[in-house]
Design goal:
alpha/beta, 181 residues, four-stranded mixed beta sheet, Arc Repressor Mutant, subunit A, 13% strand
Amino acid sequence: MRKGNPKDLYYALLPTPWGPMGAVAGAQGLRRVILPHYRMKDLEELLTWEHPAAVHDDTPFERFIELASDYFSGKEVDFSEVPCELPSSDSFSGMVYRAAREIPYAQTLSYSALAYKIARDSAARAVATAMSKNPIPLVVPCHRVIYANGTPGGFSAEGGVALKQRMLELEQRGKDHRGQA
Protein backbone atom coordinates (compact mmCIF):
# COMPACT_ATOMS: atom_id res chain seq x y z
CA MET A 1 0.00 0.00 0.00
CA ARG A 2 1.16 3.49 -0.77
CA LYS A 3 2.37 5.61 2.12
CA GLY A 4 1.05 9.12 1.92
CA ASN A 5 -0.99 11.64 3.79
CA PRO A 6 -2.94 9.78 6.52
CA LYS A 7 -6.11 11.42 5.19
CA ASP A 8 -5.56 10.14 1.63
CA LEU A 9 -8.10 7.56 0.55
CA TYR A 10 -8.02 5.47 -2.59
CA TYR A 11 -10.47 3.10 -4.16
CA ALA A 12 -10.16 0.45 -6.81
CA LEU A 13 -12.52 -1.62 -8.89
CA LEU A 14 -11.19 -5.13 -9.35
CA PRO A 15 -12.32 -7.49 -12.09
CA THR A 16 -12.37 -11.10 -10.87
CA PRO A 17 -13.63 -14.33 -12.41
CA TRP A 18 -16.68 -14.03 -10.08
CA GLY A 19 -17.41 -10.43 -11.01
CA PRO A 20 -16.25 -6.98 -9.94
CA MET A 21 -14.97 -6.30 -6.44
CA GLY A 22 -14.26 -3.00 -4.78
CA ALA A 23 -11.73 -1.88 -2.22
CA VAL A 24 -10.84 1.26 -0.28
CA ALA A 25 -7.48 1.90 1.33
CA GLY A 26 -5.91 4.56 3.48
CA ALA A 27 -2.24 5.11 4.27
CA GLN A 28 -2.16 2.08 6.60
CA GLY A 29 -3.82 -0.36 4.20
CA LEU A 30 -7.20 -1.77 3.27
CA ARG A 31 -10.19 -0.45 5.16
CA ARG A 32 -13.05 -1.79 3.03
CA VAL A 33 -13.56 -4.70 0.64
CA ILE A 34 -16.73 -5.40 -1.28
CA LEU A 35 -16.99 -8.95 -2.56
CA PRO A 36 -18.31 -9.77 -6.06
CA HIS A 37 -22.01 -8.99 -6.26
CA TYR A 38 -22.56 -5.63 -7.97
CA ARG A 39 -22.24 -4.45 -11.55
CA MET A 40 -19.12 -2.31 -12.05
CA LYS A 41 -20.99 1.00 -12.37
CA ASP A 42 -23.13 0.32 -9.28
CA LEU A 43 -20.05 -0.71 -7.33
CA GLU A 44 -18.23 2.51 -8.23
CA GLU A 45 -21.27 4.57 -7.21
CA LEU A 46 -21.42 2.73 -3.87
CA LEU A 47 -17.71 3.26 -3.14
CA THR A 48 -17.77 6.95 -4.02
CA TRP A 49 -20.93 7.45 -1.96
CA GLU A 50 -19.45 5.66 1.08
CA HIS A 51 -16.03 7.34 0.69
CA PRO A 52 -16.52 10.68 -1.10
CA ALA A 53 -12.91 11.75 -0.45
CA ALA A 54 -11.46 8.63 -2.07
CA VAL A 55 -9.62 8.90 -5.37
CA HIS A 56 -9.79 6.15 -7.98
CA ASP A 57 -6.27 4.73 -8.21
CA ASP A 58 -5.41 1.05 -8.64
CA THR A 59 -1.73 1.55 -7.75
CA PRO A 60 -2.10 1.05 -3.96
CA PHE A 61 -4.00 -2.19 -4.64
CA GLU A 62 -1.75 -3.92 -7.17
CA ARG A 63 -0.85 -6.90 -4.97
CA PHE A 64 -4.37 -7.20 -3.55
CA ILE A 65 -5.84 -7.17 -7.07
CA GLU A 66 -3.47 -9.96 -8.11
CA LEU A 67 -4.27 -12.05 -5.02
CA ALA A 68 -8.04 -11.54 -5.30
CA SER A 69 -8.01 -12.53 -8.97
CA ASP A 70 -6.01 -15.65 -8.12
CA TYR A 71 -8.34 -16.47 -5.24
CA PHE A 72 -11.50 -16.29 -7.36
CA SER A 73 -9.73 -18.36 -10.05
CA GLY A 74 -9.47 -21.17 -7.49
CA LYS A 75 -5.82 -20.75 -6.55
CA GLU A 76 -4.66 -21.03 -2.96
CA VAL A 77 -3.97 -17.52 -1.73
CA ASP A 78 -2.58 -16.07 1.49
CA PHE A 79 -3.69 -12.49 2.13
CA SER A 80 -1.55 -12.10 5.28
CA GLU A 81 0.89 -9.81 3.47
CA VAL A 82 -1.87 -7.32 2.60
CA PRO A 83 -1.82 -4.45 5.13
CA CYS A 84 -5.16 -3.55 6.69
CA GLU A 85 -6.50 -0.79 8.87
CA LEU A 86 -7.90 -2.85 11.72
CA PRO A 87 -9.32 -1.72 15.05
CA SER A 88 -6.83 -1.51 17.91
CA SER A 89 -5.37 -4.85 18.96
CA ASP A 90 -6.67 -4.08 22.46
CA SER A 91 -10.27 -3.90 21.25
CA PHE A 92 -12.46 -6.98 21.05
CA SER A 93 -13.08 -6.66 17.30
CA GLY A 94 -9.37 -5.99 16.72
CA MET A 95 -8.49 -9.23 18.52
CA VAL A 96 -11.16 -11.15 16.60
CA TYR A 97 -10.08 -9.83 13.18
CA ARG A 98 -6.40 -10.52 13.84
CA ALA A 99 -7.16 -14.07 15.00
CA ALA A 100 -9.41 -14.66 11.98
CA ARG A 101 -6.59 -13.58 9.65
CA GLU A 102 -4.62 -16.55 10.95
CA ILE A 103 -7.17 -19.14 9.74
CA PRO A 104 -5.44 -20.91 6.85
CA TYR A 105 -6.88 -21.32 3.37
CA ALA A 106 -9.49 -24.12 3.12
CA GLN A 107 -9.76 -24.46 6.89
CA THR A 108 -12.54 -23.31 9.15
CA LEU A 109 -12.90 -22.43 12.79
CA SER A 110 -16.08 -22.20 14.82
CA TYR A 111 -17.21 -18.97 16.42
CA SER A 112 -16.62 -20.60 19.83
CA ALA A 113 -13.12 -21.81 18.85
CA LEU A 114 -12.25 -18.31 17.67
CA ALA A 115 -13.52 -16.94 21.01
CA TYR A 116 -11.31 -19.48 22.80
CA LYS A 117 -8.34 -18.47 20.63
CA ILE A 118 -8.59 -14.88 21.87
CA ALA A 119 -9.07 -16.06 25.48
CA ARG A 120 -12.74 -15.09 25.59
CA ASP A 121 -14.17 -18.59 25.97
CA SER A 122 -17.81 -17.58 26.44
CA ALA A 123 -17.87 -14.90 23.74
CA ALA A 124 -18.95 -16.91 20.67
CA ARG A 125 -21.95 -14.63 20.06
CA ALA A 126 -19.78 -11.53 20.38
CA VAL A 127 -17.34 -13.08 17.89
CA ALA A 128 -20.25 -13.65 15.49
CA THR A 129 -21.29 -10.02 15.92
CA ALA A 130 -17.75 -8.80 15.21
CA MET A 131 -17.58 -11.02 12.12
CA SER A 132 -20.90 -9.58 10.90
CA LYS A 133 -19.33 -6.11 10.95
CA ASN A 134 -16.05 -7.10 9.26
CA PRO A 135 -15.31 -4.37 6.70
CA ILE A 136 -12.53 -6.37 5.02
CA PRO A 137 -13.99 -9.77 4.05
CA LEU A 138 -11.68 -12.16 2.23
CA VAL A 139 -8.57 -10.54 3.73
CA VAL A 140 -10.06 -10.99 7.20
CA PRO A 141 -11.58 -14.33 6.18
CA CYS A 142 -14.84 -14.25 8.10
CA HIS A 143 -16.23 -16.77 5.59
CA ARG A 144 -14.01 -19.38 7.32
CA VAL A 145 -15.78 -18.89 10.66
CA ILE A 146 -18.68 -21.30 11.02
CA TYR A 147 -21.03 -22.79 13.60
CA ALA A 148 -19.65 -25.51 15.87
CA ASN A 149 -21.96 -28.05 14.20
CA GLY A 150 -20.21 -27.46 10.85
CA THR A 151 -22.94 -25.41 9.17
CA PRO A 152 -21.89 -22.11 7.62
CA GLY A 153 -23.59 -19.68 9.99
CA GLY A 154 -24.29 -16.17 8.79
CA PHE A 155 -22.55 -13.96 6.27
CA SER A 156 -23.23 -10.24 6.10
CA ALA A 157 -21.61 -9.60 2.71
CA GLU A 158 -23.92 -9.09 -0.27
CA GLY A 159 -24.71 -12.55 -1.54
CA GLY A 160 -25.18 -13.81 2.04
CA VAL A 161 -24.70 -17.39 3.15
CA ALA A 162 -24.84 -18.65 -0.46
CA LEU A 163 -21.69 -16.62 -1.25
CA LYS A 164 -20.00 -17.85 1.95
CA GLN A 165 -20.75 -21.47 1.01
CA ARG A 166 -19.49 -20.90 -2.52
CA MET A 167 -16.21 -19.46 -1.18
CA LEU A 168 -15.75 -22.39 1.21
CA GLU A 169 -16.39 -24.85 -1.64
CA LEU A 170 -13.91 -22.99 -3.88
CA GLU A 171 -11.23 -23.32 -1.21
CA GLN A 172 -12.00 -26.99 -0.64
CA ARG A 173 -11.72 -27.72 -4.37
CA GLY A 174 -8.40 -25.83 -4.47
CA LYS A 175 -7.11 -27.81 -1.50
CA ASP A 176 -8.33 -31.13 -2.97
CA HIS A 177 -6.73 -30.30 -6.34
CA ARG A 178 -3.44 -29.39 -4.65
CA GLY A 179 -3.46 -32.72 -2.77
CA GLN A 180 -3.77 -34.67 -6.04
CA ALA A 181 -0.68 -33.09 -7.60
